[in-house]
What does this fold into?
Amino acid sequence: MNGTKMVVFAPDFNQVAKYADEWISINAGQDGAWWMAVNHVILQEFHHEQKNEFFFDYLKQFSDSAFLVELEDHGGKWKAGQLVRAGTTAEYADEENGEWKFLHWDANDDRPKMPMGSMGHRWGEEQGKWNLKLEDGKDGSAIDPELTFLERNDGVAQCQFDDFGKGEELLRGVPYRTVQTANGPVKAATIYDVLMAQYGVGRGLEGAYPSSYDDELVYTPAWAERYTGISRDTLMRFAREWASTA
It folds into this structure.
C-alpha cells in the first residue's frame, strides 16, 4: 500500500504471509536472534561507518542513549552498573531528588551536565522541568550530549558481556570518561557506547569483537543464521532496507 513493503516472519506460510511482499520462514522462537543481528548491521553501517546525523540527533533528544552509566569493577572485569546520579556530584549535590536525576556529558563545556526530564524532575516541587529540552536543569544552559567517547576519553575499560547462547562471558572495550563523585572518581560510559559493545560493533576497540559479518561471534548475521535458519544475506538486505527507509 502506497509503496510500503510488507514482510512477514513466521515458521509457516500462513493466512497473513500469503498477502505479504516477502515471507521469511524463521525458526520458531528465534525472532530475538534475528533482531539482534539486524541491529548489529544497522549500528555498524548507519551509526559507525556512515555516521548518519538523523539517527544521532534523534537518539540525543528522544532516547536515553547519551546518559552516563557507571562502570563497576568486578575483580578486574568491568560491568555496566546504574546510571550516574547527578546528586552524587559536587555541582548538583543540593538538587531535590538528586538520586533520580541523571547526567549527560556536554560536548560544549566538556563536563557532565544534568538534563531535564528525569524522574526527579517529574516529582519535584518545581514544575515545568519534566520535558525533553536539551538544557541543564540547574542553570538552563544548552547541552550538546556526547553519544560516544570513542574519540575523546580517559581510557578504555574491558567490560563483561554475556553470550547466552554458549553460556560464556566476553570482554569488550568500552571508552569512558572520569566523573568526580562524593564516592570518589568513577568510570562513566554512555549508554550508547555500552549498547555498541553489547551488539559487537567494535569500532577499532580491543576485545572479543567480531572481525566481520561472517564471524559467528554474537550478534553477527552469521551468528543469527545458526539460530534462525535464515541466510546472512537475507538478513543484511532486510537490515539495510529497514534503516534506509528510516
